[in-house]
Amino acid sequence: MTGLRVRTGRLDLWQLTPPGGAPLPLDELDEAERRRADAFRRPADRALYVAAHIALRRLLGARLGTPAKDVAFARADCPRCGGPHGRPVLAGGGPGAPHFSLSHSRGAVLVGVAPAPVGVDVERVPRPERVALCRSALHPGEQEELARRAPPERPAAFARLWARKEAYLKGTGEGVGGWTSDVYLGDGGPGAPPRPDGWSVLDVPCGPGHAAAVAVRGPVLETVVRRLPPEWVLSDGRIPDSRTTAARTSLSCS
């Protein structure tokens, strides 16, 4: 796997559009991942899931110096109830182990690797009727901000808000639940509610039709956003370095 470096002390974000119709190396997934992949009814959803998890394994394998198929995962304790269903972590990882997060949505994959707890999310921009149905799950301050926007702007604005919220709740390990309306991650401004203390939440540039965000515990780190070519998740996983475009990007706090 050429051209892959995940540096300690830096927030690395990787974007991927999975290849269409190409066979993917299922042998790099563990048994639980293969079962989950087989449960998808739509071939496109199955391919997206497989490509996303191959990408995560290869990126972590490059960071750890181990084959992708040997990367093992566990779950941290839930911060709400203490049960073993918190955010994913590396099995047996010590204090210096990298933190990571994965998200995928209808043709888009986002992976984050950082030295501190991190969450990422990518969302497809919803239809207007979906926004109307789900807006009550937003914080009251976010609902007010959404209502002030012109109707044509609301689906994209909702997707940005929801991506920030999911990224933050994945980073903390709480996950999305009935408490989504308790967390304010709107655009701020005079009189706006406070944001969660101790976390940086940033919008991530992505292609049209999607919104993406990352949340990392602590101050904003040096951040690099890269786009992997679709062919990278194919069987051999080897591509010329020049085809992996890397841009050092200063992401602004959302």
Question: Topology of this structure?
Answer:
Blueprint: E1 10-16, H1 31-39, H2 43-64, E2 73-75, E3 88-90, E4 99-105, E5 108-114, E6 118-124, H3 128-134, H4 140-147, H5 154-172, E7 199-204, E8 210-217, E9 222-228, E10 245-248
Parallel strand pairs: 1-9
Antiparallel strand pairs: 1-5, 2-3, 4-5, 6-8, 7-8, 9-10
Helix pairs in contact: 1-2
Keywords: Transferase
GO molecular function: holo-[acyl-carrier-protein] synthase activity; magnesium ion binding
Family: Belongs to the P-Pant transferase superfamily. Gsp/Sfp/HetI/AcpT family.
Distance between the termini: 33 Å
Give the ordered list of helices and strands.
EHHEEEEEHHHEEEE
**According to CATH, what is the class?**
Alpha Beta
The structural class is alpha+beta
Task: Say which CATH homologous superfamily is assigned.
Answer: 4'-phosphopantetheinyl transferase domain
- Count the E strands: 10
For the biggest β-sheet, the strand order reads 4-5-1-9-10
Biggest pleated-sheet summary: 5 strands, mixed
Rounded Rg:
18 Å
Integer average pLDDT: 88
Characterization of the model:
- The protein is an alpha+beta fold.
- It has one domain: Ribosomal Protein L22, Chain A (Alpha-Beta Complex), CATH 3.90.470.
- The chain is built from five helices and ten strands.
- A five-stranded mixed sheet has the order 4-5-1-9-10, with helices on one face.
- The radius of gyration is 18 Å and the shape is globular.
- The model is unreliable at 1-6 and 239-248 (pLDDT under 50).
- Residues 117-180 form the 4'-phosphopantetheinyl transferase domain.
